[in-house]
Amino acid sequence: MSTIAFIGLGNMGGPMAANLVKAGHTVRGADLSAAAREAAAAQGVEVSGNAADIVPGADVVITMLPNGRLVLAVWGETLPLAKKGALFIDSSTIDVDSARKAHEMAAAAGMISLDAPVSGGVGGAAAGTLTFMVGGAQEAFEAGRPLLEAMGKKIVRCGDAGAGQAAKICNNMILGISMIGVCEAFAMGEKLGLSHQALFDVASTSSGQCWSITSYCPVPGPVPTSPANNGYRPGFAVELMLKDLKLAQEAAASAGATTPLGAAAAAIYERFAAAGFGGTDFSGIINYLREGRS
Ligand code: NAD
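# nicotinamide-adenine-dinucleotide complex -> structure
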């Protein structure tokens, strides 16, 4: 069993740290928020307000933070304090360039490291069913795999440094684009007199088939678990989709990739969020399109 320093005990990090405690590890946690610390302490995490307090002597350091700037700041602060050879894992969703920089900082400090962003949301974090997309050396992957398995059910090594973040934003760019496409089709179908169920029955088994139809249909009825049946409460909030689409655009610019639909999806979600829908589910973009906005 390992001693783990877990930094960032928010909506995702809190339940992930709790699952590491349940798996029998000693988990020390840090967060700036007293409420997050209290919730984690109730799950058996030894908490502190300061990351620097919990890193010395830990075998593994995990960060679950809002953005790349914070990840680099926290790694920069804690790498010099860690035991030589410790494993640093960042599970936040951040830009690929910052993820690669974090790996370089870890190697320079004599540590091994992984970028290991997740999908599965808060429900998956609580249930221990997250998917981890992992970048880093094979040795680091083998060292980290048992811990990731305590927090997730599917662990995929995508390649070397930054490959986990690259896979995450490529996947979520597909999702943002496909959801808008599915919403356009359902809203157009309404105007053409087509029932939601008829379009679902055809498109869910035809060449238009995709996750945005089969698992997350943006109209009430065909998929009872989708947020459309629940007033478009998230689910996956517009602001999180927008964050990932912006990261995808940064990556495209940095890598010289041509992503016109990714750019359009980011712009549409940006306007939807600015119209006051940032906290609602991203499939609610269908209502925006129905109003003739885009
Ligand atoms: P959150 O805002 O709930 O949690 C982040 C936590 O980090 C907060 O509790 C904050 O106080 C803490 N924090 C910030 N700076 C800190 C510092 N310097 N030291 C210690 N603690 C600090 O966010 P979340 O929803 O848990 O998301 C975390 C990451 O996971 C993000 O990168 C997000 O994009 C990604 N993610 C979220 C979801 C989701 O559904 N919420 C799904 C997949 C990925």
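# post-check
DSSP finds 13 helices and nine strands in the chain.
Residues 7-13, 30-33, 36, 51, 64-66, 70, 74, 92-93, 118-119, 121-122, 240, 243 surround nicotinamide-adenine-dinucleotide (CB under 6 Å).
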